[in-house]
TrEMBL record:
Pfam families, sorted: MFS_MOT1
Species: Hydrogenophaga laconesensis
Keyword annotations: Membrane, Transmembrane, Transmembrane helix
Sequence intervals crossing the membrane: 35-60, 94-114, 126-146, 158-182, 299-321, 327-346, 353-376
Protein name: MFS superfamily sulfate permease-like transporter
Membrane found in the keyword field: yes
Keyword ATP-binding recorded: no
């Protein structure tokens, strides 16, 4: 850990062991719903996703020396989980290929300097439109699960909305605990089986037995395209801006973060895990709970690596205990967070048209939504289209 990045900026309290330990939990509200969704809904191997996130958290904590976050890619996660709910694809294979495509793009963008150039030419309305559409798609998928277990689902959603603005980092752990309690009450034999599942060393198994099918390539390309604008805005520009504000001594720029994103996703692809990114909100959340150094992500990363290597089977067995209503509520909160993240920005008539058109098409296909939004925006700017 570099001494420069360990310096405490004047605006923050001093670094403490307790602060870093508590701050390491600050991003669980973002991680847990997608972690649970990927394992239980999309069928991703628990060892793969836990190991990929764990190693990445250890690496960025050591490399940057600050509470640098590692998060699921929200557009990819929302699209994958929403489509999985309708049995669209074999998602583990699609997600691993998406991680490989994402790695290639961001490594090239980071090494060539394209990342900084593209970031300056992003359209906020197209980015927000994709996020809005994917949030709605995820909410619709969550409601399909809640309708079969509406008492638990509705209760969990209402409780989540109450907690969302009052200690959001506790929200997902509390939903998990409540879900485990309901699952144990309904099916005590499953809890007994989960507790009896032996802990053993387990490594992820490859999801590709050969060259992926054409449909898998097309699905992965659509997910990669849908995520790219959001990653530029939040995981490249946003994280660089927030790092300079909170930890000004840290050496960072858009190209460096792009390369970091590429290396993480190369690891994810090799482990058959979903793609990952850095998110500005994760940095802010950890810092708000007292995290000041790279120890914060390293605490969480170390715990995830241990779970991946020695307890992935018990973790998967426990997650299978969660009621459909709880899973639906967790996915609802994830979708709701995406939707409200697009609010609060004034827009004129043309901007609203781009936003809502992109969102509407993204509910169906996020990749097509990006292309449609860019085309509409360009047409309106050149007056080919008129409103």
């Amino acid at each position: 850990m570099s001494t420069a990045s360990a310096q405490t900026p004047p605006a923050l309290s001093p670094a403490t062991f307790r602060g870093d330990l508590g701050g390491s939990l600050g991003d669980l509200g973002t991680l847990l719903p997608f972690l649970v969704g990927y394992i239980v809904v999309a069928g991703v191997q628990a060892s793969a996703i836990l190991l990929a996130f764990g190693i990445s958290l250890l690496a960025v904590g050591w490399r940057y020396g600050i509470p640098f976050p590692v998060q699921p890619m929200k557009a990819v996660g929302a699209a994958a989980l929403a489509h999985t709910a309708t049995a669209a694809h074999s998602m583990p294979e699609v997600l691993a290929l998406t991680a490989a495509m994402t790695a290639a793009f961001w490594l090239v963008a980071g090494w060539t300097g394209v990342a900084r150039w593209l970031a300056a030419h992003l359209s906020r309305d197209v980015v927000h439109g994709v996020v809005l559409g994917l949030g709605i798609a995820l909410i619709l998928g969550s409601l399909r699960r809640i309708e079969g277990d509406w008492v638990v689902g509705l209760t969990s959603v209402l409780a989540a909305l109450v907690l969302l603005g009052r200690g959001a980092w506790l929200l997902m752990p509390l939903l998990l605990l409540a879900g485990f309690a309901v699952g144990t009450w309904r099916q005590p034999e499953l809890m007994a089986a989960a507790l009896q599942t032996p802990a053993a060393v387990a490594l992820p198994q490859p999801v590709w037995n050969g060259i992926p099918a054409t449909s898998v390539w097309l699905s992965a390309a659509a997910l990669t395209l849908a995520q790219t604008p959001l990653t530029f805005g939040n995981a490249i520009l946003g994280i660089v801006s927030e790092t300079k504000r909170l930890f000004p001594a840290t050496r960072i720029d858009e190209n460096r973060v792009a390369r970091s994103t590429g290396w993480m996703n190369l690891l994810a692809a090799g482990l058959s895990a979903p793609p990952m990114c850095h998110g500005a909100g994760g940095l802010v959340a950890q810092a708000a709970l007292g995290a000041r150094t790279g120890r914060a992500p390293m605490w969480l990363g170390g715990a995830l690596v241990l779970l991946a290597l020695f307890a992935s089977a018990p973790v998967a067995a426990l997650l299978a205990l969660l009621p459909q209503g709880t899973l639906g509520a967790m996915l609802f909160v994830a979708g709701f967070s995406l939707v409200i993240g697009t609010a609060g920005n004034p827009r004129d008539k043309q901007a609203r048209a781009v936003l809502l058109t992109t969102a509407a098409i993204s509910v169906w296909n996020a990749g097509v939504g990006v292309l449609a939004g860019l085309l509409l925006e360009k047409g309106l700017q050149t007056r080919v289209f008129k409103l």
